[in-house]
Amino acid sequence: MPHPRIASVVAVEPHPDDVEILCLGTLLKLKQEGTRLTIVCVTNGDKGSGNQPDLPYPEVAAMRFREASSVAAALGAEFINLGAEDEYLYDTPELRNALAAVFRRAKADVVLAPSPHCYQTDHTIASEIAFQAAHLSALPQLRITPPALPALPALPSAPAMYYYDTLPGLDFEPSFYVDISGQMARKQELARMHTSQMASMKSQSDWDLVEAIEVLGRMRGLQSGTRYAEAFRLCARYPRLKAWTQFPA
Amino acid sequence: MPHPRIASVVAVEPHPDDVEILCLGTLLKLKQEGTRLTIVCVTNGDKGSGNQPDLPYPEVAAMRFREASSVAAALGAEFINLGAEDEYLYDTPELRNALAAVFRRAKADVVLAPSPHCYQTDHTIASEIAFQAAHLSALPQLRITPPALPALPALPSAPAMYYYDTLPGLDFEPSFYVDISGQMARKQELARMHTSQMASMKSQSDWDLVEAIEVLGRMRGLQSGTRYAEAFRLCARYPRLKAWTQFPA
Amino acid sequence: MPHPRIASVVAVEPHPDDVEILCLGTLLKLKQEGTRLTIVCVTNGDKGSGNQPDLPYPEVAAMRFREASSVAAALGAEFINLGAEDEYLYDTPELRNALAAVFRRAKADVVLAPSPHCYQTDHTIASEIAFQAAHLSALPQLRITPPALPALPALPSAPAMYYYDTLPGLDFEPSFYVDISGQMARKQELARMHTSQMASMKSQSDWDLVEAIEVLGRMRGLQSGTRYAEAFRLCARYPRLKAWTQFPA
Amino acid sequence: MPHPRIASVVAVEPHPDDVEILCLGTLLKLKQEGTRLTIVCVTNGDKGSGNQPDLPYPEVAAMRFREASSVAAALGAEFINLGAEDEYLYDTPELRNALAAVFRRAKADVVLAPSPHCYQTDHTIASEIAFQAAHLSALPQLRITPPALPALPALPSAPAMYYYDTLPGLDFEPSFYVDISGQMARKQELARMHTSQMASMKSQSDWDLVEAIEVLGRMRGLQSGTRYAEAFRLCARYPRLKAWTQFPA
Amino acid sequence: MPHPRIASVVAVEPHPDDVEILCLGTLLKLKQEGTRLTIVCVTNGDKGSGNQPDLPYPEVAAMRFREASSVAAALGAEFINLGAEDEYLYDTPELRNALAAVFRRAKADVVLAPSPHCYQTDHTIASEIAFQAAHLSALPQLRITPPALPALPALPSAPAMYYYDTLPGLDFEPSFYVDISGQMARKQELARMHTSQMASMKSQSDWDLVEAIEVLGRMRGLQSGTRYAEAFRLCARYPRLKAWTQFPA
Amino acid sequence: MPHPRIASVVAVEPHPDDVEILCLGTLLKLKQEGTRLTIVCVTNGDKGSGNQPDLPYPEVAAMRFREASSVAAALGAEFINLGAEDEYLYDTPELRNALAAVFRRAKADVVLAPSPHCYQTDHTIASEIAFQAAHLSALPQLRITPPALPALPALPSAPAMYYYDTLPGLDFEPSFYVDISGQMARKQELARMHTSQMASMKSQSDWDLVEAIEVLGRMRGLQSGTRYAEAFRLCARYPRLKAWTQFPA
Questions:
Q1: CA pair distance A115, A125, nearest whole angstrom
Q2: What is an example of a Pfam family matching this protein (chains A, B, C, D, E, F) (predicted)?
Q3: Which string of DSSP letters, residue by residue, matches C221-244?
Q4: What's the rounded Cα separation, in Å, for the pair B39 and B78?
Q5: What is the pLDDT of residues C223-234, one digit of tens each?
């Protein structure tokens, strides 16, 4: 596959597993076309142990890093964690620059980010950081030098940016749906590799990761005339908004 | 081109020239891929003579039919006029059925329609007729027999439906943009074939058809990172909403 | 149960089965409290035979009337059909009056109606008819005499009006959710009595009535912290909007 | 006052008294500047006798015509009634033309109309009729001949159109507020001339015309930093939307 | 009253008196049912001396603390002040944790918070802090230890969260209204105990606390068919959104 | 011109040139009436050198300060720069106070600010700072002392606040339009004085400052029935929302 339609996609997630729930089917589809995939997690997810409330935070972070890395490896994606503190994410210059550096290094054509209207503050803040980082990544005059690395050249233009669905489909008016009926089995299989989150979510609600994926995917499929789908929304702000070369289908 | 991505598109317009202003660039693009194109006009446009206010209505209708047919011929599209009275369009069973019959006969995969929030009532009513006709076209139990013709078989599923932009971009939040930079010159050339409307619009405002196309196209291009674009919005209602097979680009 | 919290509820549906899909769980719950229930269907549903496209329309209407009546009987509700033509519903004075007469006769405290933004025109028109009928039902100066019956006294005040969810949850921002986890089994059992629609829907899509109920109920449940829920929206227009006597829970 | 800023304003109301409740303060203000005022009522209001439910409809219509005429006379406005049936208003070609004829005859610069999202169907339909009539009034090729009168010349351009507030401020996001603190006393005095409606409204709710005016005016004043105000919304659709010559204050 | 319908409600306010203006009638109603009430104020309100601009800030804070405490005592609620600086509120980890600790200690079932679209930044920030704190309060793995106190156990599930109305009803689309006609006299009596704010507001506008309560309550009542009402909006985000056990009335 | 309708307007911009693109035509119009004009820029714009990416940041800031000052001088406005870092603007107490001090010193009647939904974070943050500063400027109890200056007296009431358009017209629903056809030539002439930005923008897109002004102005003109217009939106929040003394025209 020497020429994928979209060369490089970076998916930004607040915690390890958000991408798995909300847009993994689409990433699997893009991978089949040859798109380069990067998943970048903004926080360390160290509060994600609802079923084992007494686990030390650093152990939780380490466990989730291993799980997310395994999924990324199985998907054929690079996984990066920016290490901010779970549940207390703030929009800092350092995180904006770190994320813009990821976009530059990956030569991102497309950024997938959480919705600015999502279910907890880490999500909305991660969305805002991605929003500004997409802009910064294409400013040649902005010299971003990651620690111990030379400056990364700016992107020729800002990546197209899309918001993936919210959990569980609340306060989200999709711009479009992608059919993932053919990717659903694999999506659930990969999501199940988040062993800790399967248990943690179940302990805090009546559903686990894979059940949430099933219900949301089925609902978005019902809405859009197929078995399973994922929903997305344009970030309709210059310069992240890009006209498409084809009428979509 | 034996296998276009989208086999058949029907563009619905309230008056002869609306498609030219608002989505002709996209139709030109689809034509290049081999898509079958149909333009169906709901009214006869017989009030479209602002510059010659005393022209008898039937003459205006005839003149505009000739102009719209010429554009369609140059584009390689079929042109159909349903003949309702200009400025006094109402949603009738006959028009719903007539439009559903067009969708069936054209085996439409995609319907492009005016926005339900457009600048005059013929537009909003044409939008509503198209909305219900898209649904009716796929009901096998609904037997539509155009005058003097056998019953048309129902579509296997309702066509995907999208709204094209409003004139001039008011009360319209696009779901996506299509780059028509490569089609703009031809779009304007074809639009200019509406000689009567070039003069009529100019007499009622400070712009003519081609100037409106230029400003709106440039604005949508500026918004979406290209020279010229056209904007569309999902009709986000079952069963006209369809998941796409590809992530768009 | 001499004093139910809500004495009488009328649920308006465009076709026989809409109430079953979208608010039957809530009706079951109200029934348990002793609320008087009326289901009024606006069209005869005579196009609902997707799986048997050649069935004569009157046979379809008769079959669906039997099915809807059976469900209503099992629920303990009155069922009324206003007999308008399926797929071609228009807002007429006769239908407004007929519906207002139903509200008056049932002494409705609450009206449940389809959303004005639903998936086909019969739904949106039924919503508009119910909107005006709710107002008319409480005008003492409006003398409504159903055929062959004396005039019905006006309601002391317009019923509170709520929109039930859309199929399948599109273009609908809920004002609130009702937990129907305890009613779900019975809801599906009753819906299954629409034998014709179970088959008709399946033939036109990949789901049947009960699957749609399952997915939508599960999704609304996931959103609102329970197993299964139904979603509603205020009709926020005077005089259908009523302050509640209690903070809800 | 030879040169008022706005030469002629036409206020459209569904029933006799809507203008009094919702924009009379602004009309009083414009009158002081020398603006020509026309109030056109679309229905005959013959159902407006909540306190005397047995009054024959024609008597109600006649009584309300007298009341509305008196208010208009006191204001220095022309009053016209188009005579459609109260509670059963539909959008017909005849009413569109009749209203467009009023706009032409009054040489309207500005049209004030009910919101398309108002509390009963007569209001929303009157809003739609005014919407299309504003467009028709400026089409020179549309020849409108009122019964027994010569054709009226088209307006040079469509009047600017604004929606006045809803009763009671529901589903209405104002574009701007006009300070009517200095007009409030006179507004209430004139409204009180609707003797029948003072009694009719009181009999159907806990407020009468003047109380509603007081509460709504006070609320809009509180919102906009003054004692009493009226709220308006742009009709943001071509060609009814007009840039202003001055930044407002 | 051993079993109130709602066991514990926490109302969050940016400044001492916001709860009094915007939801005190509902709190009075809940109190009658036996609900445990807590009012938590985020800032110290030390800029609230418009009528005495030279008063030292600490004196203002002390005075307002006394006033708010008196109201709470009269209502039978606990009053807590988190002590952030008035007019300069920011979303910090400390405030999130402090507020989550209040929710945990009060075993909150329901949180009432300012709208995220309110009239000054302290309100929108307080809304955001409450939003995240509601989530944090139910994470067992999050160990919150208030100064000099043992860790508080997490709530079994996040409290249901609702936004109360804005001052003065701007940019707020209510999800529902609560009838407070029976509580209005007492609400105004309690509000009047904010002697300093009665004078401060009057000095900065043409209304005082009690006048604002009167106008807003009357307007919300007019909208919802009663004398006086308060308006609320769902926080429609997981896990703060809860299905109700009853259809509301 | 001893008595302009609006005595003093302050236009807030995130970077030097935003006012020029988005509301300079209106400022030119107000200047003709005798309004006192102040332009206050929040950041130093030191990243605005897309065409010369290696220019040291302080040089860029100095160059842009000169350009913006020249435009302001030619316009007859005061220019102030608050000096925050370009691309990394945050909402701090110092910036709130500095901006409120500008409003106080200019005795602002009207504040024009960027939209809270604009294309990059500096814009949305500048909008939020202006939002709170407008409120702070009218609190007599808030004692703002700019460095080395005595305390500035509070404004008698908060300035009216309006958002100017976004670049390029995205996510912005105008409340009103101002006709700038007569000001367009001068607007473009002044904008061209931003020599560095003419080149920098062109290097990052296919348009420069003046082309963007042309397209946006023409589009807003087409929408509002004139050649060129600028669009504004109310900040519909107390106390920045003010009723107007006149119906606008």
A1: 10
A2: PIG-L
A3: HHHTTSSSEEEEEE--STTT---B
A4: 6
A5: 999 999 999 999
* F to C contact (≥3 Cβ pairs closer than 8 Å): no
* pLDDT at D2 (0 to 100): 61
Q: What is the ipTM of this complex?
A: 0.96
Q: How far apart are CA A51 and CA D75, in angstroms?
A: 73
Q: How far is CA E181 from CA C159, D234, F105, in A?
A: 20, 35, 46
**pLDDT band, residue B147 (cuts 50/70/90):** confident
- Residue F4 corresponds to which tokens in the numbers above? 């302009």
Is the CB of residue C219 less than 8 Å from the CB of residue E202?
no
| Residues in Cβ contact with F233 at an 8 Å cutoff, skipping those fewer than 6 apart | F115, F162, F163, F172, F173, F174, F175
Amino acid in position C7: A
The answer to whether A and E touch (≥3 CB pairs < 8 Å) is yes
Backbone angles phi and psi of D87, in degrees to 5? 75, -5
Q: For chain A, what are the domain ranges?
A: 8-234
Output phi, psi for C199, to 5 deg: -75, -40
Task: Answer whether residue E2 shows pLDDT above 80.
Answer: no
- Identify whether the C-beta of residue E115 lies closer than 8 Å to the C-beta of residue E163: yes
Which of D46, D92, D120 to probe by mutation at the C interface, max C CB count within 10 Å?
D120
Cis preceding-peptide flag for C168 (omega within 30 of 0): yes
Question: Which residue on chain F is closest to E49 by alpha carbon?
Answer: F141
Set of chain A residues whose Cβ sits within 8 Å of the Cβ of E154: 53
Q: Are A170 and C205 a contacting pair at CB < 8 A?
A: no
Say yes or no for a CB contact (<8 Å) between A243 and B174.
no
Query: Tell me, what's the pLDDT at D34?
Result: 97
Inter-chain touch B243–A249, beta carbons under 8 Å: no
Q: Of the candidates C47, C167, C170, which has its C-beta nearest B141's C-beta?
A: C47
* Residue that is written with structure tokens 């976009």 in the block: A103
pLDDT in tens, A29-65: 999 999 999 999 999 999 999 899 999 999 999 999 9
Kindly tell me the burial class for residue B219, based on how many C-beta atoms sit within 10 Å of its own C-beta (0-12, 13-18, 19 or more): buried
Does the A8-234 domain belong in CATH 2.170.150.70?
Answer: no
Average pLDDT over residues B19-43: 98
Query: What is the amino acid identity at position F172?
Result: F
Q: Which residue has the tokens 């054209």?
A: B106
Residue F73's DSSP bridge partners are none
Residue with tokens 């930079």: B181
pLDDT tens-digit map of A74-97: 999 999 999 999 999 999 999 999
Q: At what angle do helices C184-191 and C57-75 cross, to 10 degrees?
A: 150
Question: Two tokens at A79?
Answer: 């996984």
Q: Which chain A residues contact residue C222 at CB under 8 A?
A: 168-169, 207, 212, 215-216
pTM assigned to the model: 0.97
- Write out pLDDT tens, residues E103-136: 999 999 999 999 999 999 999 999 999 999 999 9
The pLDDT of residue F3 = 85
Q: Which residues contact F32 (CB under 8 A, 6 or more apart)?
A: none
Q: Where are the alpha helices (DSSP H) in chain E?
A: 18-33, 57-75, 93-106, 121-136, 184-191, 195-204, 209-223
Q: Is the pLDDT of residue E63 over 90?
A: yes
Reading the block at residue E103, the tokens are 């929710």
Cα–Cα dist A226/A210, whole Å: 19
CA distance E120 to chain D (A): 14
pLDDT tens-digit series, residues F149-176: 888 999 999 999 999 999 899 999 999 9
Cα–Cα distances in angstroms (integers) from residue C223 to residues A174, C174, C219, in the given order: 17, 11, 6
3-state DSSP assignment of residue B217: helix
